[in-house]
Amino acid sequence: MWSMFWKGQQRANLPQLEESCQKLIKLTAQKNAGQRGDPNCINWDNIDMVYQEIAIEAVALVLDSRFDALKNAWEETEKQEEAWQEAREKWKGEARVESWRKYWQEHMPEGAR
C-alpha cells in the first residue's frame, strides 16, 4: 500500500508543477477574488486545490528516480555561482583600486605622488 512513497515509484510532471505554481502566483496577485466572473481571474475558492496540486507534484518530484541527478546538478550550479560571485567581488575590489590609482595619477601633482 505504501509503495507509492518509495523512491522511483513516481514520475514528476514538471509542466504541471510549473503551471500550478503560476496559477498560485496569478491567484495571489490578481486584483479581485475571482468572484466577478472575469475569465482572466481565478476564483479564490480554488486555492485549496492549487495548494494540493503543488504539494502532490512536489512529492512526486522528490520521489522521482531522476531527482538525485537534478539535485546534484543544482548543487553543482550553486557552487559555480558562488565561485563566480567570489571572483566578481574580488575583481570589483581590484577594479576600484586600479580606478583610484588611475585617478590619483591623473589628478595629483608630480610631487604628491
Instruction: Estimate the global geometry from the Cα principal axes.
Output: elongated
Please report the total strand number as a whole number: 0
Average of pLDDT = 80
Helix and strand sequence: HHH
Low-confidence stretches: none
- In quaternary terms, these chains amount to single chain
Cα separation of the termini: 81 Å
Which structural class fits the helix and strand makeup? mainly alpha
Outline the biggest β-sheet: none
The helix fraction, in percent, is 55-70%
- Over all CA atoms, what is the radius of gyration? 26 Å
**Number of helices, where a helix is a run of at least 4 consecutive DSSP H or I residues:** 3
Share in β-strands: under 5%
Structural description of this entry:
The mean pLDDT is 80. The protein contains 3 helices and no strands. The chain has 113 residues and is an all-alpha fold. The longest helix has 41 residues.
